[in-house]
Queue: 4 jobs
Job 1
Amino acid sequence: MAHLLVVEDDPALRGALVRALRDKGHAVATAPSGMAGLDAAVTSPPDLIVLDLGLPDVDGGQVLRMLRAVSDVPVIVATARDEEPEMVALLESGADDYIVKPFGAAQLDARIKAVLRRLGPPEAEEPLRVGGLTVDPMSREVTLDGHSLDLTPREFDLLAHLARRPGQVVSRRELLAEVWQQPLGGADKTVDVHLSWLRRKLGETAQSPRYLHTVRTVGVKLMAPEAG
């Protein structure tokens, strides 16, 4: 059972979410505004927050940024907005996932479980080495030629998944299913955006790759530069 905080101003939707999530076995607290949600998140930290964007006092995106200044609690943004630039901005601001309204209780429950599973304690695993790149699943640290890289949790998960399959082409569908826990598909742009961020931190570009190689219409593979 997860302890959830639902930040949603619409009473009818808030009540429906509470009933549905409790039916799924979760303990649910609620907040009707952004500031009330921030206060609840700090005073009684939940396992995960479901955060609406259209709040009456403070925009949900601003709530997310304020929350990230004081807490690393997982956040799933629930929104009717589906424009790609805004979704990218939310991910960069610290959202762990997002879900577009309208959505069903089963889909939200699956997203909650996926985020908590992904951020839970990892099983014992040896560091993964691909050329000068070392990915340590236990410490969640990455070094490149001896220098530490500062990756977001999702960037780390993406890189680790590829590092477990060095030299193999991994499809975007597999990445969405295994890293984003979206087995029914999702936006390929989500994968492309995170790959772009990873390339920048690895000191390469899609036009001049060293480690991350795109195979057009198929997927991407991670390989050591000397193996190319």
Job 2
Amino acid sequence: MPPGSPAAAAERARERIIDAAEECFRRFGVAKTTVEDIAAAAGLSRATVYRAVTGGRDELILAVVLRSLRRFLDVLAERLAAERSVPDAIVEGTLSAVAFVRAEPTIARLLVPEAAGHMQAAVAGAAEQVLALCADYVRPYFEAAQRERLVRAEIDVEGAVEFLFRLITSLIVMDRDRGEDATRAFLHTFAVPAIAAS
């Protein structure tokens, strides 16, 4: 689209609003951030925010989560390309994802009790979108490994991503104070056989 077109201007405004939402979520927490806070941080009126983001706060929460997720997946894709084996890719990728969510303020705050309602409305309701994004990133590695018979032939990338997504979420939410080496052993014992060829 041409830089001076109305569509380009609308896209710039939307990105500015998402930037402001990300900053507000980091400063105030997801549950305490209002559309007014986001509008003020963006230097725009509330009406402008609602025109640019018709889904309101829930759409903004999801937009921030997806942006953060894309950043992580860019890093993960590089890591997957460097891993020597499918089991290592499964285990190290899962550990990286858990560490990323725990360290990422925007996403981590969505998983704490004060924001549980927003998590369900904005993110869990869009789980298909989140899973599809993850699948798009890992599909080339998964399909290459399957061609080499390193991944079980009867499973597909969407199912594998959903399985790992659920596993990552449970490791974050149900933290058992298991050290990294013990978690690595747990994943090698239970997650690897579910995906990797024997």
Job 3
Amino acid sequence: MGTATDTKTVHLAVYDTLADWETGHATAWLARAGYTIRTVGPVAGEPVTTLAGLRIVPDLTLSDLDPEDSALLILPGAEKYDEGDELAPFTAKARTFLDAGVPVAAICGATAGLAKEGLLDDRPHTSAVSFYLAATGYKGGEHYVDTDALTAGDLITAGPTEPVAFAREIFARLGAYEGKRDAWYRLFQHSDPAAFHELNA
């Protein structure tokens, strides 16, 4: 089995109402950096449908996912995080990852899922806005940071409008694109033409 330090597999959680735009930068560029992206769904063989209507058949089920086989678990946002506890098993798995010292990256609604799970009560974190998480009734409001994306140890959080900053934090946590992360960020966040040449030098 691999460990968080030597495996090159990143697991992307997939579920109905997944917000398509939130993880594309991270997964595409991690794949370009040599990582394998595997999708993890709730039920074996059953496709999920994203907000855009795209159907994804997961590579494996949540129950088969072991932190020892993963470098990172990515939890995209989804409307279902705001509609009840159907996705609670995914945030429970995030707890298993964090307890094992394997990083978790959550964006948008997934941060609310983590809040409900109690995983943001004692960790610095961010999200869309502070009152979005406050509505979950969690106890971590004093640890909320108003920023684009944030890494706190093994946990990365971001709001729904920050997929580029979210990817930047993921790359940094995994050590991808060393020496070129700033250029990558400037290119995709600010359309800096000079950054294109730096990134491809």
Job 4
Amino acid sequence: MTVEVRPASEFADVRALLGPKSPHANVCWCLSYRIPSKLNRELRGPARGEYVAGLLRSGTPLGVIAHEDGEPVGWAAVAPRADTSFARNRKIPHVDDLPVWSLWCIRVRPGHRGKGLSHALIAGAVDYARAQGAPAVEAYPLDNGDARVDLTMAYPGLRKNFERAGFTHAADTTSVLAGRPRVLMRLDLR
């Protein structure tokens, strides 16, 4: 197995990982934390994918994609916090005024899980943010201890995976997902 993690640049790869099976379905496309709530509610069906394609064409940082033997198999959303709703989120605090990047979604395609791809995606997202000049990367994973988490709701990642990648607990949050608290984890890149 050869895995390469690189910045998202090809719409076909992003669509393979985030797009719906039916073109008219309303799936997230990893937009819910990226755009204002009103716009997120207004974008329906194919318009969601078209919006993501436009972001990609504009050079907006979207995230990174893991490729296994050339096939897109994993996704991690990472971008400047200022360009996300985390800049205004009341449940997830700011620990300082650094222009940090946020890493908020990790997704590995079925059939490719259990191979360590989420670890590769976290490392790839950090490398990408570092290359773009980020002073730090924040994540907002579930603090689930040893409890199992439904994979659908595990998209923000798990605290232990971020700890393994060198992130440290920076703050508690009042955000809860799937019945589990989310914590603010940070990796200083300075």
